[in-house]
Amino acid sequence: MSRFLRGLGRIPVTLVTLAVLLTAGAVTGTLFAPADPDDPIITTMEFGLPAIREGRVWTVFTGAITFRDPEFYLFVGAMLGVGLGLYERRVGSLRAATALIVTHTAGVVVPALLLWPLAGSSWRWASTLAGELDSGLSAGGFGVAAAATALLSPPWRARWRTLGTAFLVVQVLKSGLLWDLEHCTAWLTGLALGPRLARRAREHSHGRDRAEDRKLIALIVAGFALSIVVESVYPGIGGLVGPGPLDNVQERGIWLVLLELVIALLIAGALPRDQATAWWFAVAGTIAVVVNSLVNAGPQPRTGDAVCAGLVLFVLIWFRGCWPWRGDRQAWRSVGTLVVLVIVYAALTATAIWVMRGSFQPVPQLREIARQTGSRFTFTAGPLTPADSTGLGVLRVTGVAWAVIFIGWLVWALYSRNGRGRVSAADSAGRELAE
Questions:
Q1: Does any domain span residue 214?
Q2: pLDDT (tens digit per residue) in 322-349
Q3: Considering its fold, how many domains does the chain have in total?
Q4: Mind listing the pLDDT tens digit for each residue in 251-283?
Q5: Is the link from the previous residue into 117 a cis peptide, with omega within 30 of 0?
Q6: CATH code where residue 80 lies
Q7: Are 31 and 150 found together in one domain?
Q8: Which structural domain range is residue 95 located in?
Q9: Nearest alpha carbon to residue 126 among 109, 111, 139
Q10: Could you please report the per-residue DSSP string of 124-189?
């Protein structure tokens, strides 16, 4: 108990922050029940561009201790209790308080200033966010986490920075909620502030490490994958590069979301290996996402998905030299198996949509059926909208079926020795000679 109390004495900033959050939640009642959207007490405390334009600059801090839903007290409280507490033990209370206040303030004020000239413009995403209010200390939590990466030693410092940056940038591009923009801004501020607070000199890179580059690229793919789950739980408004708030969003079942996450993580997990097969499959997959997002999507192209996949494709091509060019000879067996699976699945899916075509809007012709079938391979919302539960069931069942098939194939092709095949002596000698 004595050691525990001494440990608490080393994190006064963390304890005070948590105490203020819980007290404010108890006073406003949001600690126990969701707030009324029209409650004037809550709205006058929240921050955002409308509050700054009205001169209520103090909301930057009053909004930090205000939440609309009880679950955010649990999430942000745990993030601050663990992250801020550990950071404060390492750098001291003054530096921890500086990181929290500076990153939170930047995360709130900078987005508001960027959105100010765009308020009322024809850019639906920007004009929508310019009129919204937000609350909570989550931006400061992300900022402290970014600052804390300066305390890590290589290579983990670069790995965590890469994963966090990829995840938050994707959220801005695909989801585009106000808090997404605030979190990303606070994270980038923390990355810049962290080395100064940690009293570390700027470190210079000493040459390229291909193995480490492959791991960083895999973390970028993983960051994109994790955004799938978050966007499904909290649907966005179209993202920075999207068409703005979407009226008709085709919801996917939680099982399909989780299976899609497994697929992305399986591909990311294979990229650190010094094998060409994983690189080629990752490139083919990102190209398929770009095509389906722009060509085979619904009435409005999924521009955010296409841009994010394009960024991954750019990174894969830019760092192409980290992988060998030639795959194992037996890898063609995996490709041939995949082609057969694609043909069979496409035929069965197209047949199911044709039989149940009365359950879709508009009633599909052959062209729409082909586009909808193609969209199933990347779980993209196609041009058809289910008109009843039967149509929705067809889309979900076919999506889950392809996810299960593809996961089985990925495990066999990328992780099973039989799928990858054995590297022959000629291939090994040729690779060594090329290197």
A1: no
A2: 998 776 666 788 889 999 999 999 999 9
A3: 2
A4: 567 788 889 899 999 999 999 998 888 899 899
A5: no
A6: 1.20.1540.10
A7: yes
A8: 2-201
A9: 111
A10: HHHHHHHT--B--SHHHHHHHHHHHGGGSPTTHHHHHHHHHHHHHHHIIIII--HHHHHHHHHHHH
